[in-house]
From TrEMBL, chains A, B:
Ranges of residues in domain Ion transport: 71-293, 415-665
Keyword terms of this UniProt record: Membrane, Transmembrane, Transmembrane helix
Protein name: Ion transport domain-containing protein
Domain of life, per lineage: Eukaryota
Region (Disordered): 1-26, 746-767
Annotated GO CC locations: membrane
Cellular compartments annotated: Membrane
Residue ranges of the TM segments: 68-87, 93-113, 134-153, 195-218, 230-250, 262-288, 414-432, 444-460, 472-492, 533-555, 608-630, 637-664
Membrane topology: Multi-pass membrane protein
Amino acid sequence: MSEPEKIEDIPDESVGKGKGIPNGGNAAKTKEDFDLAAIYVSDAQYNRNIYFDTSPEAVRLYLRYNHWVSQVLLYFFILLDLSLAVFEDPAVFSLPIWATMLVELLCLLVFTIRIVHYAKVIPRDKFWKDPKNICIIVIIVLTLVDMIIYGALKATNYYGVRWSRVLRPLLLVNVTEGRQLRRAFRSIRNALPQIFYVFLLFMFSLLIFSLMALKLLGKRGLTTIDGSPYFTNYLEIIFDLYVLVTTANSPDIMMPAYNASYYFAIFFILYILINNYIFMSVFLAVVYNNYKYHLKEEVRQLVRAKRHKMVRAFAVLQDQREGREPVVNQANWNQLVRLVQPDVSNAHRELLWSVCDNNNHGLTGKVAFVQLADLLNIEVITLKSRPHPLQSLCPSLYQSAPSRLLCKLVQHRAFVIVYDLIILVNAVFIGLDEKNPLIANSEWAFLALYLLEILLKLYVFEPRAFFSKHSFWNWFDTIIVISALIATIINSSVTLPGTYTSRQILDIVFILRVLRLIRVVDSIKRFRTIINTLIRIGPAILTFGQLILVVYYVFAMVGMELFKHKVKFYEDSSDPTKAYCGNVLLKGTAFAQLNYCKNNFNNVVSSFILLVELTVVNQWHVLSSGFAAVTHGSAKLFFVFFHIIVVIVIINIFVAFVLEAFFVEYSVDKSDLQTSLEKKIEELELAVAQETLEDNLVNAMETIDSDQGTGQSANNKPTLMFKIASKRYRTVDALLQRMFESDLDPEDFAENDDQNGNFANPAFSAA
Amino acid sequence: MSEPEKIEDIPDESVGKGKGIPNGGNAAKTKEDFDLAAIYVSDAQYNRNIYFDTSPEAVRLYLRYNHWVSQVLLYFFILLDLSLAVFEDPAVFSLPIWATMLVELLCLLVFTIRIVHYAKVIPRDKFWKDPKNICIIVIIVLTLVDMIIYGALKATNYYGVRWSRVLRPLLLVNVTEGRQLRRAFRSIRNALPQIFYVFLLFMFSLLIFSLMALKLLGKRGLTTIDGSPYFTNYLEIIFDLYVLVTTANSPDIMMPAYNASYYFAIFFILYILINNYIFMSVFLAVVYNNYKYHLKEEVRQLVRAKRHKMVRAFAVLQDQREGREPVVNQANWNQLVRLVQPDVSNAHRELLWSVCDNNNHGLTGKVAFVQLADLLNIEVITLKSRPHPLQSLCPSLYQSAPSRLLCKLVQHRAFVIVYDLIILVNAVFIGLDEKNPLIANSEWAFLALYLLEILLKLYVFEPRAFFSKHSFWNWFDTIIVISALIATIINSSVTLPGTYTSRQILDIVFILRVLRLIRVVDSIKRFRTIINTLIRIGPAILTFGQLILVVYYVFAMVGMELFKHKVKFYEDSSDPTKAYCGNVLLKGTAFAQLNYCKNNFNNVVSSFILLVELTVVNQWHVLSSGFAAVTHGSAKLFFVFFHIIVVIVIINIFVAFVLEAFFVEYSVDKSDLQTSLEKKIEELELAVAQETLEDNLVNAMETIDSDQGTGQSANNKPTLMFKIASKRYRTVDALLQRMFESDLDPEDFAENDDQNGNFANPAFSAA
């Protein structure tokens, strides 16, 4: 690697100033410098906005704080803490109180260690200013207090409530790594004021319609289908009409009035039009509009903070040159990248360097250097062309005419079509009765065919390329087919001796068989496009999964305290109390008639499934009325509240997110940065033709003349090819940032943001 | 009015060429010229894209064709034709066949006259190239054929089907005036290919899940709540899981499996997540994305066509000047505007002229002239300041100190608050039992209070200003209060003699009482904003109303032929067959148990209400299973098809429209054109202060010194004030165009579009 021209050692006060940049100038860079720069780059890469101390000791601690092992451990203990609900009363698997308490104490200990570690990394005043730290400390203290009280009450045989359990999911929000989740909560909080006013208007409309319903229908002596008076109680009308907005009791709630006269249908149609179609669309519009607006602002701030960090990293590693812009030389740059991302191959690193050092001067300026964080986030697939191992072993056989013909056949489009047809035939056979011996034995034939396909492909394509990291469908096929083979063998060996068949194994066999059919999707290009878009927004959907988990957990904890053991489910169908779920209060209710006994809050799993049902909305009025019947009418408020929070707010934000992500996918194709990297790849003639790749990643490999080079350098020709996995994003942030990249000025380094003494962190308070 | 400098008479070939522009140059403009120009302007204003003949006779015919009377007549006969369904078998009110046939013949005659009229207006080749004309002719012919066949069958006592009835709503789409509706259908058609692929993928996922359900659950011997086998028939599973996507049978469909084991809940949750949340969001995203894209393209073409027409109008009326740009002088311009819009006041017209003739030269250039169509579309409220009539009658009394104090009190904010409180108290009283004499009499007190409010306001504010066209709430209040007064008086006079109370009058009284409460909304600014936005998108929602009407009508006609009289509703509750809706096949079905007998296709009104219920989705599986039970299993396809068309496609387009309209409302505030008009108004110091207007339109009037001028000219000071009703749109197009105005180049006159021999009309074929 060429060392660039030596430069004068002039410390630059304008850059080296400030707390975060201790080592400006041209002194030989120490290990501490590299550590610091690497931290800045990695913080920029993962959008960590932590104002850490820059003393060497704090930097080492900070490195350890961000180490993946400590993060995995933290999440493990959070999950352990959350999953304690499975073992605590009301439990799925009952454990003695001391056992769960002990585990919880252990978790609290880990969280305490983690927060102390964090306190040592960042300056004291910053630590106490950050609401999420306060929040964690408060959670730990409150949990301890609650455990002591509960333990004391239990020891003296009093009734105790473990109220601090609702605080547990808040840990997920407030740990340093919960950035995405905090952002999601912020976008909800930001949308709340506007939602609130629409909601008030909606409630006003609901009250007016209820009043009208009471006046119009209350005095007519109509009865509902079970004979109770219809629309006579104002509060009940409000609840019924609220339920009608969710469509859950349509058209039943209308039928008594409709049976009395056609004209009353007008009332209900008007109500549904205004409150269901118009208001619900307005909710979505308001949520979506707010979401878009605030997201834009947040991502802009995030990108500014990222650039700021990259400028700091640059300042640490820069070489000063008199009268010229400071630069970073290749050696330092290489060491930095190796530190930040040790798994990057040499070739990949050289490619990145050639993007940063566009003019081949052996050094990179500030503008080019700042890209590094984004460049590292772009996933580059390095393809090495290797000869097929069989060619090395017995070249004469592999190169023979029949073998070549076979290769051609397998690579032909007809091969794919034939196997798609086989899959379709297989689908029909699966649908038929497997008791028929012919059908049962056909399974072996299909398995053999699928195995043959994999073996043929392995014969034709280089195995390491076939099983490369990004060949999703190859992995999918192989795993499914081999699992199915194993399961089928086990199943038939279990079946043969006696007549007993293990249901579990058979279930697995069936699932695997059906899953195999999914492969057809990959053959149709239009489908692949849709699926790829869905896969791309997958990680972001996971953030919403966490959000839902937090909300569900809180509601499950509260619901379990309120409703546990009020409704019982009897496995034994002969029990006479089964008809009313073990609670006489439920006699004759729709809840009992529909046999909803298992929809209860008797343990955390049931609670979660019940909450899913409430999210789906249908029949939620039956469920809420059931629980109101066994406790008190006001219990319905719990369910209405859940509906407002989850369905009106969170699901709408989810839809807004999917819409926005789809629009970005449709409108933007590749970000500017990726294009610059791609340009470089094309410039160096290292690109893999896009079209061939689209068809089959492995095909492309075969068209390249084989060459035994290990590809250490990019100079000797294409033994090594690059392809940008442009459609995948390592982080959710990358997707979000891409959404709004067009608004950003590439020359804006956000240097004046330092005046605040902190990175521009979006306005935040613990959720 | 000043005549501008006289200009040389040089016919300009470059402008006067072309079929549409017969009269370039400076010859004195004839009546025909003005007619032609007026037609171009009015076509531009209302976005009519009709390539009419420019011969004076054709122009006269065209004027008559576009006259509002002929349009109203046309729509009257279309509605008459559609409403025949009420009287035809199966009828709400039965009429003899000859009567409905006669009316239908009359309608057909009107349509024929209309299309012949149209054929005379436009060149023959254009007429036969337009699919919507062909469509109307085909509809007329087919209807005649059907009527003859049906008449012959009936005469010979055979069973006949009036199949041409499904064609009737297509008239609504294909008449010249159905532009908005055709556009809505086009946006659906454009979105279809993309929706189709997502739908296929969705169906694939549905089939895979169904297969898995069959294999996992079919063999376990589970039963549903009514004892029938659970998940054993593949087709039924597909239907059940399709219904689950609409959430209509959640959680019932899951309960048998869930009762058997917790693990099966995973299957259903996964299914709901993928097919309900993900796929339904993707449907919305695809529809919305397509909608946005195509709408943009269409509106761009519309605006180009509009400009083209304005350029033609300009060419007809222009005066040529040697070496200078052609212009139109004020006299011609005035006559044109008078022709186009006779109801525009002189003052308003002078205001518009001062916008077109910005430099006061007495003539307007092409760029300024082209704005005219848009300027005419901006609603300008002309306010005349008049003294209160009482002041003219007895000025001493009206100007006395107590009278002034009263005016101040009424105009005070507290007055509004006091009346809001009265409304709230009234709401409580309405909620209470009206049998109580105190409550019943309180109604008189409230009525008196409301009347007093109106009288006080009339005392303080000038009555004509109080009841001006745009004072919605004043009109609302007065109408509601006076109607309530009349209804209450009638009601009590009817009640007093005997104990009998007319239900109908009482209903009206109650509705009026409750409606009065709505007034509170106007006092809260946030609510007003939301409501204003809703009112603004109202006209566009009406287009969707037409769309829904067309689709409903077609489905109602088909449904009536398929299912009429299969399910019967008995008013008499003692009839034993009532329990199963008069059809033994329904015995024991959920349809009969839930007493859905009145949800039938026995007449067009029932059918429409049933279709609304199907649109709301909940319980649609019960309804479809009911109708399948009385006919054939494949009847479910009718309902599934309805769901796909109405809920997946049309409702999503509706939501997309509301979202887009809301975003435009949030982001754009006023169009450039409106601003230019407003600037002019401000320049001339004729503006009404915005803030005072926001509070109360009438308040502002009082602050202006009274002056008896009639305001013929804008030169003598503000006896006349203008205000732009900027937030209202005369046409739906104006709203749509405003949405995409930012993309358009104001200097682009679309002159080369003429080469196609027609106005740029968006690709269209009859729906």
